[in-house]
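Tip: read the tokens left to right.
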């Protein structure tokens, strides 16, 4: 039997707010969630896996509009597999470009940190005297 979780449990598990989960359902990112007899949402393990994938898409910068397109294609089933793959390939290229830019920016930041460390060493009187003492010992 499939696990059924409440919206609060899913919010805690996925680190999304209850509001976000309801919003995702309202805008069509999530298909209508099954409901218990009392009307409360009950999320299946498949729902949770899909929410986790949506979270990855969002975290990597995919716009909500594209996520909606992807969700709509997913609902169409196998006939849309090629379109879904293509959409993900385009997104993958964008993420790769972001990673490249982040890596370049990180390198510049690391260079600046190194530069400031060198300046600190040059301007620190105690390091100069320690440096002179170590030079005398050598």
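Filled-in amino acids:
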């Amino acid at each position: 039997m499939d696990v059924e979780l409440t919206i609060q449990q899913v919010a805690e598990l996925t680190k999304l707010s209850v509001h976000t989960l309801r919003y995702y359902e309202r805008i069509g990112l999530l298909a209508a969630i099954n409901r218990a007899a009392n009307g409360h949402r009950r999320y299946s393990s498949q729902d949770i896996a899909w929410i986790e994938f949506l979270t990855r898409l969002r975290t990597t910068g995919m716009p909500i509009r594209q996520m909606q397109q992807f969700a709509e294609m997913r609902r169409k089933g196998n006939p849309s597999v090629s379109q879904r793959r293509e959409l993900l390939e385009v997104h993958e290229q964008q993420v790769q470009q972001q990673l490249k830019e982040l890596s370049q920016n990180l390198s510049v930041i690391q260079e600046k940190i190194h530069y400031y460390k060198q300046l600190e060493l040059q301007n620190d009187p105690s390091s100069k005297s320690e440096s002179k003492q170590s030079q005398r010992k050598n």
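The two ends are 75 Å apart (CA to CA). Residues 1-76 form a domain with the Multidrug-efflux Transporter Regulator; Chain: A; Domain 2 fold (CATH 1.10.1660.10).
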